[in-house]
Amino acid sequence: MEFRGMKKEKSFISLLLCAFLSLSNMIPSSAEEIIDGETDETEETVLITEEEPGDPEVSAEETLSEVSAEPEETAETADPENTADAEETEPAEEPVILPEEPVEETAEPAAEETEEPAEESEEEPEQEEASLFAVPEDFEVSPGDQEGKQELVDNQVPEMLASLKEGVDYAEDQLMFTADSMEYAEQTAEIFGGTVISLKNGVAVIQLEREDVTVSDAVNASIETAELPLVEPNYYITLEPNIEDGEYELYSSENELPEVNDWDGWVNDVFDNPDPWLITPSDNNFQWHHDAIKTYAGWNATMGSSDVLVAVIDDGVDYNHEDLAGRVTMLDMTLDEPAQSSTFGTGHGTHVAGIIAASVDNGLGGAGIAPNVNILSLNVFAVDVNYAETADIISAINYAIDAGADVMNLSLGSPIFNYQYEMAVNKAYYSGITVCASAGNSGANLKNFPAAYSHTIAVAATTLNGTRAYYSNYGPWITISAPGTKIMSTCVNTDDPTDNAYYQIMSGTSMATPVVTGAVALYMSKMGHVSPDEMLKVLKKSTVKCSSPQMGAGIISIEKMFIGDKAAPEIGLFDADGNYVSDLSTPVKEGYYLEIYNADAGDNDTIIYTTNGKKPSVKNGSIVNGLIYDPEDVIELDEFEQNKSVVIQAAVMNSLGVLGAVKKVTVKTRVPAPAPLKIKTVSLNLSKVTLTCSLDTDEETDLYATTLINTAGISADLDTIAHQWLSSNPAVATVDESGHVTAVGAGTAKITLKLLDGSSKSAVCTVTVVQLAEEITIQGQDAAAPGGSAVYKAAILPSSTKNKKVTWSIISGYYYASIDAKGKLKVVSGAPEGQEIVIQAVSADRGNVIGTKTVTVCPKATAVVMMTEDSRAVYNKKGLLSSIQLFTVDIDNADMDTFAENQVKLDSLIVGNDIAPVWTSSKPKVAKVDSEGNVTALSAGTTKITCKANDGSGKSASITVKVIIPMSSLNIVIGDSSIWSVGKTLKLSNKFACGNTYGKPSIPKVKWSIDQVTYEYDDAEFDVLNELGYPKDWFKLSGSSLTVSKNAEKAMDLRSGSLYVTVKAEALDGTGYTAYQDILITGTLNGMCFEDPYGSGYTMVNDYYDYTFYTYLYSEQPVNFQITSSNPNKVGAYIDYNSVEESEFWIMRNGRTKYYTGYVYTVYYFTYPNAKGTVTLTVKAMDGSNKTAKLKLKVYD
């Protein structure tokens, strides 16, 4: 079709305000939605000015002159002939009021010449508009209305409103405003000539009844007239139909579920009934986001609390869903009064709620981030209507505030600023609610509201390889990122609403947002309610790096949220009767004690405390300084030296071995009762003693004071004097309160009697503990040849045994052999084959620990051969087993289910005898082997497994076992490169993601190949060209580089059909994982340009231009683009792929015109407060050409 005079009915807010609800359907992903091409670089300047009476009219020639002065323009883009056309089509008078920002600028209209006329021009319209509405003398505008009016002006709302269509983009004849009473609402309705039709949660809607007043009239008058109350349109927020990606699978749990794999993960160790989508990492439905954000680390502390309430403002939540039932309260906010509803929209809200709070360990579906929290679902989408009204969203926010929500999820948004919407979000913030909102799915550095409001957590989406999802918005206004691609969660079966066991995969910033919301809810479940400001600090420091720029603080990490973030415990002082004592400055009395309580300790956490003045410390999960506090016990202060200051410090060590905040208190021990005399001399009955310990018994002894003389030379009774018995090393010897000493382990300890009478006297006994032998194992070969010899060693346990000497003897078969004092066995030459000789070793320290070993007489082996039936084995040129690769875990793979991937069974052939060999591993921490040759992998690395004949022959065989960490899954992550141009090379090397559930993969490499080439006709019929012998020179795959030849374009009509090449990635780590991706091939892109409304000599013919906040981009080929604003804080933009139409256009370069048949895209752009200056929008074709087109916007006051 010819594209001239393109003025079409366009639902502007349906496209701009549409709450995208950031669904996967809003993510341009299919070939029909987005297709790439290439173009030469062009640049266009649009001057946005506010015309004032009395100003010299800016002519087309002046405009062109100013445009030509821009340094980025070239002669190639100039077209004087086109200037005349622009003069004819440029609107003569259509003022656009944009905010002012003090920036340097050239060619700005002189302000002094136009100042007086400008004042006159502003007064007349205001008087005319104000005359439409009569304001009662006693009426008072609500506080904040004037500020709101200025906000609307700053954000260009009046200008944008002029391009919107009543009844399509906002409710016909309806005004929305905030009202704290029906009286105020009715007064406002009377002023504008309407009737109040709704007042819910502080949001009023009136229906206009005057035929001479439009919504636009009322809103503009409201903004321009100080005496009028602030009103706004009741905007529609549209939810488009869901578009499924064909590679995603949908499941109802009533159908057959994937086989549950028993891999060595903590899910199977902890849960009794693991959820299917948590079990098998290679499954397409696996909830990979839990691994990405380390949800499991948070679950060590809490699984969520029913005390936490999460408000989900969306299209409803299926409260009967099997994975949510019992924890959802749903209200329909579109009704006159909020009430429960049995309709759940498209399932978007149910999907969001499941990501936050789906149940865990119930054998159903997957799990939410915070499985035990409660959901308050507030549906703002009316039944059978695909849009929400702003008034209902604001009402829902106010309802959530009154309901006491802790956190709020808004997976919806719009690029249009709305003042009363922002005020509602601010009210939630000041009420203590953390508000999380989606960044939007435009794939641009474009602000999206409410995410871009100052008191909102703006969430961008990442994909499986930790980069920005191509559809996700980005920019300096993003707070944080989270996984948003291929997220499996609860959903609604729109074909069968009674199916309460339905699940679906979706993608979008709508999915990333509840990941963060769930993390916030999980954190509050453990820490209690947290203010939005404090929660923001926690989130920003709890991230890992996102490899893409402008994605906020990084990707959320729940592990970091909980590591080292344990609150300090409380240390309380109590008297002898158990009463709390707040005064810590006064010395305590007898019987006082300390308790450590109300600690932020979970079931797997430990409280560590010290009394030595040093802080508790741990290293690698082990205590370096401190003692473990028993919650059932107390710290008795009577045990400390009297009349001293004691410093107690305590902290919680979490299950990961990390300490939290430290609590420190200082108490003064009791002052001893006045004693007539202090002790001058003290001594014990023993100054040193040696004890023994063994498996059977630990020696004991008693210590007591033999000398206790006071300063008067009189003997005293120890029972009358405060004292304390202490052991310097309880691991060696312990002492009780009566001086009874018990040996524990080998070593030396000092037992001290410490007097607490103020004399500081003490007496010490040095205790040496000697470890006796408890077990003897004889090590050496199991067989010996006639006339041969063998040396045996006695291994004595424990290793701390002091006397390791043994006495050797033969207790059976002594006619055929002898053994000396060093354990050397000699077999007589005539010993019969098969004769058993039993040797014995007896401990020398006390003679009651014995070890024995049986030695068999047999010929020596002549060779050892290792074998296995495992198909993974590798053999050398001689046909002998040489190596095998194992995984650290047993993965679930249908192609490899005949054996466990982390184990191998090795067999042996001992040539010459049948004595069982000895199996050893050179690195048992990498892989261990038992006496039967069963090898089990433990960690990544390489080890040598040796099978040695146990007969003294020295014959052995060895193989190399390499243990790797396997991929847990394989996905192709091609993003907006899924459409490619002929003649271009696509680098696939970074277009895949390896799952890391088992740890960082050891071999993160793949092999690429072309799997299939198809041509699909417009009638949906298709040919599999590789079955028809397509020319091989169309596609060339060299390593990971796919080159598309232009021969494909010459041979195939790419206008009347679609050419696809399917690439295949195969894991090279032995997992057998494969992934496939269809790539749409487009023709050569020779022409791409923006429209040129001012005739500045650029690119196109178009005899109609509507001066509004959108323009058009023309492309010869249907192309994927990336649009970027040079200053997103001033101007943001995005491309609407849903409104693509075919078009004819022409481009003139160097005086030559070339016509194209192609496609036209709508580009929307938005200015923000203080946007004065020049901003360039750059569109880049993502088809491999990397060609760009530019649109320069120069914003005046």
Give descriptors for this structure:
1197 residues, alpha+beta, Alpha-Beta Plaits, Rossmann fold, 8 domains, 7-stranded parallel sheet, 5-stranded antiparallel sheet, 73 strands, disordered N terminus
CATH homologous superfamily descriptor of the largest domain: Peptidase S8/S53 domain
Query: Which sequence of strands runs across the widest sheet?
Result: 8-9-7-11-12-13-14
- CATH C-level name of the largest domain: Alpha Beta
Roughly how many Å apart are the termini? 39 Å
Query: How many β-strand runs?
Result: 73
In the CATH hierarchy, the third-tier topology of the largest domain is known as: Rossmann fold
Structural class: alpha+beta
- Relative strand content: 25-35%
Shape: flat
Q: Output mean pLDDT.
A: 81
Q: Percent range for helical residues?
A: 10-25%
Largest sheet: 7 strands, parallel
Concise summary:
Helices cover 14% and strands 34% of the residues. It is α+β, with helices and mostly antiparallel strands and 1197 residues long.
Give structural notes.
This protein is of the alpha+beta class and 1197 residues long. The protein folds into eight domains: 88 residues, Alpha-Beta Plaits (2-Layer Sandwich); 278 residues, 3-Layer(aba) Sandwich (Rossmann fold), CATH 3.40.50.200; 99 residues, no CATH class; 88 residues, Sandwich (Immunoglobulin-like), CATH 2.60.40; 83 residues, Immunoglobulin-like (Sandwich); 102 residues, Immunoglobulin-like (Sandwich), CATH 2.60.40.1080; 114 residues, Immunoglobulin-like (Sandwich); 108 residues, Immunoglobulin-like. Helices cover 14% and strands 34% of the residues. The chain has 19 helices and 73 strands. The strands form 21 sheets. A seven-stranded parallel β-sheet has the order 8-9-7-11-12-13-14, with helices on both faces. Strands 3-4-2-5-10 form a five-stranded antiparallel β-sheet. Strands 48-49-56-55-52 form a five-stranded mixed β-sheet, with no helix packed on it. A hairpin with a 4-residue loop joins β53 and β54. α13 packs parallel to α16 and α14 packs parallel to α15. The protein is flat and about 120 Å long.
